[in-house]
Design brief:
With 738 residues, this protein is an alpha/beta fold. Among the domains are: 251 residues, Catalase HpII,  Chain A, domain 1 (Beta Barrel), CATH 2.40.180.10; 144 residues, Class I glutamine amidotransferase (GATase) domain (Rossmann fold, 3-Layer(aba) Sandwich), CATH 3.40.50. The chain is built from 19 helices and 18 strands. The strands form three sheets. Strands 1, 2, 3, 4, 5, 6, 7, 8, 9 and 10 form a ten-stranded antiparallel sheet that branches. A six-stranded parallel sheet has the order 15-12-11-16-17-18, with helices on both faces. Strand 6 and strand 7 form a beta hairpin. Helix 3 packs antiparallel against helix 4, helix 4 packs across helix 12 and helix 5 runs parallel beside helix 10. The longest helix has 17 residues. The chain is globular and about 90 Å long. The relative contact order is 0.10.
Length: 738
């Protein structure tokens, strides 16, 4: 895939240092002739306190770790570009959304609950945050791979995080929600029901970061040139589809390769398989704010795509890995409050709290108010204001003015114009080049007065606000179960089974039976079928009514709770299931394990490898040892993967070629483990004609996902079955616990 030039690269390159052919210096540029020995009084004597080079080195080392993020600590990042492809000028003045505009981006994916060193494959929400380096400043679209959240009001944000984190007395479990404190909180918060179903679905254990959707979660606003607002929700739709792994598989991947997602993203970009997402928007006219049976400002609700279709407006391509993880991925500061002209906040009460929380967090975590001067956070159009001081200041601001308005600095930096203003207003014109204002004492002029034409200042959309100051919630936020039911009923039978198993696993880890009962009562309100199936696995009969303690907390927010919900417009959505529809899907970038040994037929390997690579997949040869593989005909090939160094859980499909290697494989328990486990995890397996007999030595049974060369069009069928991602029906037919 051809990469487009990233305009952010040149700016970042100014800060990239290459040590090749460079003499070593101290942090002050002083040449160093010995970086191995401290300064001592004699070569066996005590070290001297005057060794400033040693202290300089060690003080830097002692401070190399900054506080990790409280949430989203475990992350992976990449650079790329976003290209706008639709004309939105009638609804937003956002410059980067003008058709044909290419904007550099930096994206950070993350897990939420675990510490920085936790596994990639935890059952968890994935952060999906995009920093757009627009010509009007940085815009951060801070989202998740799940479109809703656990809570409605930011006042509860510290509580949900504290609940899901390791329990404070013993600091376990790591990166897991399967413990008492989390489910204690969830079982007392009916508003969490919808999100809890998403987290117990396959969405929470993705196959790859390249195969997740992204959502803004919150409703925002577009603002056009006339100041008219349109409500908007953002969606990222991956070109590779949305896929997960089996829970049993995820647990094993965590042990075998805790960096599985991070490695997968890096390798894909490094190999030129640039991940792509289409950016879509759901647009709701201002006058339709209260049109639906749910409240569009409620972050625990989606807007079903059957009601408001997603309009694709552009494409993002990730095409460059970071040069340095710490300097870029770790120091990248995301904040939903970083907006550009044409985008505004809604009154979503969770979003309103995040506006403060994220900025405050980055200020603390990155050591002060100048974190935006770090290269990864710098806007491409520069920054010009009167803030001169503070920790970590990098820019050197000239002049004697650090206030506004001023006349000493010719009124600079001056204001940008507002929508509708024209450049060079009569009687107050500045210099022709727009670089300085008048020197007649009239400091504080607009860009329009300084001759700047076309530069729009950030403008908040006008909104009439009335009401008493209260700590309450609107009754339009009080329906906690209808959309959770919509999600469950929209899933395939296999996905519903996975969810039942996930809830059963999690609640089995909860020691308090009271908590289990409270949560089952909540799930009964969502869907009795779901609650009864989980209850059967726990040996409990779900209550048909909510626990009194749960009702007490719910009535803190809505005194008349429960409130009769409105009739939903949509009861089943085709957009919520991850199951690949017939005739769709792709095998691009899929990893196919070729299971073989010395004596394998070159023709048997070569034919299938070429067919898979033509379709975009990658063949990975696995043998009993690394080094030279010897083919039956005398050819050789270097092997880097073995049955001992690799595991079936790290591959998407399997092929056993023919040749003299068959006898060796029949006696190799590691080979049999590969194919048995791949089958258990509902993956597609293909066998060359003389390898078909190996199936008899396994517990594999023939189905549509077990392909034999002796069948007609077998190679085409192998690819067709792989496009389904998994043969999930295998679980139901054979009761294989994947």
């Amino acid at each position: 895939m051809k990469s487009k030039k990233n305009p952010k690269t040149e700016q970042l390159d100014k800060h990239v240092v290459d040590n090749m052919d460079r003499m070593m210096t101290s942090n002050d540029g002083v040449p160093i002739h010995d970086n191995n020995n401290t300064l001592k009084a004699g070569n066996r004597g005590p070290s001297l306190q005057q060794d400033h080079l040693f202290f300089d080195k060690l003080m830097h080392f002692d401070r190399e770790r900054i506080p990790e993020r409280v949430v989203h600590a475990r992350g992976s990042g990449a650079h790329g570009v976003f290209e706008a492809k639709e004309d939105l000028s009638d609804i937003t003045v956002a410059d980067f959304l003008k058709k044909g505009t290419v904007t550099p981006v930096f994206v950070r994916f993350s897990t939420v609950a675990g510490f920085k060193g936790s596994t990639d494959l935890a059952r968890d929400v994935r952060g999906f945050s995009v920093k757009f380096y627009t010509q009007e400043g940085n815009y951060d679209l801070v989202g998740n791979n799940i479109p809703v959240f656990f809570i409605q009001d930011a006042m509860n944000f510290p509580d949900v995080v504290h609940a899901v984190k390791p329990e404070p007395d013993k600091e376990i479990p790591q990166a897991a929600s399967a413990h008492d404190t989390f489910w204690d909180f969830i079982s007392l918060m009916p508003e969490s029901a919808h999100m809890s179903l998403w987290v117990m679905s396959d969405r929470a254990i993705p196959r790859s970061l390249r195969m997740i959707e992204g959502f803004s979660v919150h409703t925002f606003k577009f603002v056009n040139a006339e100041g008219k607002t349109t409500f908007v929700k953002f969606h990222w739709k991956p070109r590779l589809g949305v896929h997960g792994v089996a829970w049993n598989e995820a647990q094993k991947i965590s042990g075998f390769d805790a960096d599985f997602h991070r490695r997968d993203l890096w390798d894909a970009i490094d190999q030129g398989n640039f991940p792509q997402w289409d950016l879509g928007v759901q647009l709701i006219p201002e006058e339709d704010e209260m049109k639906f049976s749910f409240d569009i400002l409620d972050p625990t609700k989606i807007i079903p795509e059957e009601l408001v279709p997603v309009k694709i407006i552009g494409t993002m391509t990730l095409n460059r890995n970071p040069e340095n993880f710490f300097a870029e991925t770790e120091q990248a500061a995301f904040d939903p409050g970083r907006l550009v002209p044409g985008i505004d906040f809604s009154d979503d009460p969770l979003l309103q709290g995040r506006i403060f929380s994220y900025m405050d967090t980055q200020n603390y975590r990155l050591g002060g108010p100048n974190f935006h001067e770090l290269p990864i956070n710098r806007p491409v159009n520069g920054k010009y204001n009167n803030q001169k001081d503070g920790f970590g200041r990098m820019d050197v601001l000239k002049g004697n003015t650090s206030y506004f308005p001023n006349s000493q600095g010719n009124g600079c930096p001056y204001h940008a114009m507002l929508n509708g203003e024209m450049g060079g207003s009569e009687g107050n014109a500045g210099s022709a080049d727009g670089k300085s204002g008048s020197s007649d004492g009239k400091g504080g002029m607009h860009a329009a007065q300084a001759g700047m034409k076309g530069t729009q200042g950030y403008q908040t959309g006008r909104q009439e606000v009335q009401g008493l100051k209260v700590r309450e919630r609107s009754n339009s936020f009080a329906d906690h179960f209808t959309q959770a039911r919509l999600f469950f009923n929209s899933l395939s039978e296999e996905e519903q089974t996975h969810m039942i198993n996930a809830f059963s696993f999690e609640l089995s880890k909860v020691n308090s039976e009271d908590i289990r009962k409270r949560e089952l009562a909540i799930l009964y309100q969502v869907e009795p079928k779901l609650a009864n199936a989980i209850g059967k696995n726990l040996g409990l009969t779900p209550s048909k009514t909510l626990d009194e303690l749960t009702l007490k907390f719910a009535r803190n927010n809505h005194p008349d709770y429960p409130i009769k919900p409105n009739k939903p417009e949509v009861e089943k959505s085709a957009y919520l299931s991850m199951k690949v529809k017939d005739g769709e899907g792709t095998i691009e970038t899929r990893q196919v394990a070729f299971l073989l040994d010395d004596g394998v037929s070159f023709e048997s390997v070569d034919k299938v490898r070429k067919a898979l690579e033509k379709a975009g997949a990658k063949a990975v040869l696995i043998s009993s040892k690394v080094g030279q593989l010897k083919y039956k005909g005398g050819e050789t090939e270097k092997i880097q993967h073995t049955y001992l160094t690799d595991a079936s859980v790290c591959f998407d499909a399997f092929y056993t070629p023919g040749g003299d290697s068959i006898a060796k494989l029949a006696e190799n328990p590691d080979y049999l483990q590969f194919i048995n486990e791949g089958y258990r995890h509902c993956k597609v397996l293909a066998f060359a004609k003389d390898a078909e007999g190996l199936v008899e030595r396994s517990f594999i049974r023939k189905d549509e996902g077990v392909v034999f060369e002796s069948e007609s069009d077998w190679l085409a069928n192998f690819i067709t079955q792989m496009k389904k991602h998994r043969i999930w029906a295998r679980e139901m037919a054979r009761k294989v616990p994947s």
